[in-house]
Amino acid sequence: MKTLNRYLVKHANRTIFVIVAALLSLVSLFGLYEELEDAEAAYGFVDSVSFVLATIPRRLDEVLVYGVFLGYLVTLGRFAETHELTAMRAAGLSPARIILGLAPSLLLWVVLNIFVAEWIAPNADRTAEAQKTQAQYGGADHGVAVGLWMRVDNVYMQVQAIDANGDIWGVTQYVVNNQRELVTTVTAEKGAFDPLTEQWFFSNTTHTDFVNGETRSKHMSMWVWANPITPQLLASSAFLDPDKMSLADLYQQITYANQDNVTTHQIAFWSRLLKPLSYIGLCAFALAAVLGPLREATASFRVTVGIFAGLGFKYLQDLFAPAAIVFNVPAWIGVSIPIILCFAVAIALARRQV
Question: In the sheet where 155-162 sits, what is the strand order?
Fold first, then answer.
């Protein structure tokens, strides 16, 4: 059995590598084309190429699950053509046992996806987006202009710029009460975060309180804001969409937003958390399809079916995830439905072959 497992893993990984490389090259070319459409005097060809190269980890994260699915479909289809899959079934191997034989390969790609999505891609994307913003619009007096807005409990905060050290510039806070009435504004020239005390130190700060129709202002050279929100989280909010953030950043965003309704951050969080199940479901579907309706199909037809199946899975994700926001359904339900449907189809196809 160990020899068989190694045989399955070797052929699967080789095919997956080729397909992922082809998909990554294709989406990178499309990405370069989109960047060149936005090119202008201050943001030209070299900047566009640099941006695309820097965002390759994110593109790898996006295509990897579909590359793995197509890789298994092609590999298992090749085994079906050479009757090796029939021999495995005749030897008493169930579909579940064959999937188990592919488990080391599946685990390898899932771990790679997690490593890229959680550590490499977010940092690379933040840097790339910051450099792109600076190239297109230039820097602020301090750092990169972002014009970031975010909510922390009852505080709405605007940040004009973030520098390379994580310091924020041009800070304005609007504090509201439970009736959503403005009670205080805070403006500061600069804010620096102390990770040891988890506090922000704002310099050249002006507080303005609105009390009973009166306005009272006071200036302080230094003011401490006790809030553990980190510069990394602010940078993620400024430069990254929710689906490009790490799980840790998404969790912090959800925690600090403190909202009852389903948000795009919650959808992205559960999509990332449940992504390993997508790998397993698509792998099971690939095996069930090859054992069933695609057993006698040609390789090109299998690839075509695989592409449309992958697109269908993505379209289902794009359909049910926003629907969860619209109907205020728990985010994990909207994310789980396409995965459950994938498993259901795979199980139905496998049972027909038993």
Answer: 144-152, 155-162, 168-176, 182-194, 199-211, 214-225
The amino acid sitting at 337 is: I
pLDDT tens track for 286-333: 999 998 888 888 888 999 999 999 999 999 999 998 888 888 888 999
Longest dimension (CA), the chain: 86
SS3 category, 170:
strand
Core vs surface per residue 196-205: b (16+ CB within 10 A) or e: eeeebbbeeb
Taking a C-beta distance cutoff of 8 angstroms, is the pair 330, 261 a contact? Answer: no
List pLDDT tens digits, range 178-224: 888 899 999 999 999 998 988 999 999 999 999 877 888 999 999 99
Q: pLDDT tens, 101-141? A: 899 999 999 999 999 999 999 989 988 887 877 776 555 55
Q: Cα separation of 294 and 281, whole Å?
A: 17
What is the C-alpha to C-alpha distance for residues 38 and 47, in angstroms, rounded to an integer?
11
d(CA 51, CA 35): 8
Tokens representing 288? 């069930």
Quote the pTM value. Answer: 0.82
CB 251 within 8 A of CB 305: no
Give the integer Cα–Cα distance in Å for 261 and 327.
10
Q: Do 251 and 266 contact (CB within 8 A), yes or no?
A: no
Place of tokens 């191997």: 93
CA atoms of 127 and 135, how far apart (whole Å): 12
Please compute, for residue 141, the number of CA atoms within 13 A of its CA located in the half-sphere on the CB side.
5
**CATH, range 144-243:** 2.30.30
C-alpha–C-alpha distance, residues 39 and 33, integer Å: 10
Length of the chain: 354
Quote the CA–CA distance of 103 and 261 in Å, as a whole number: 37
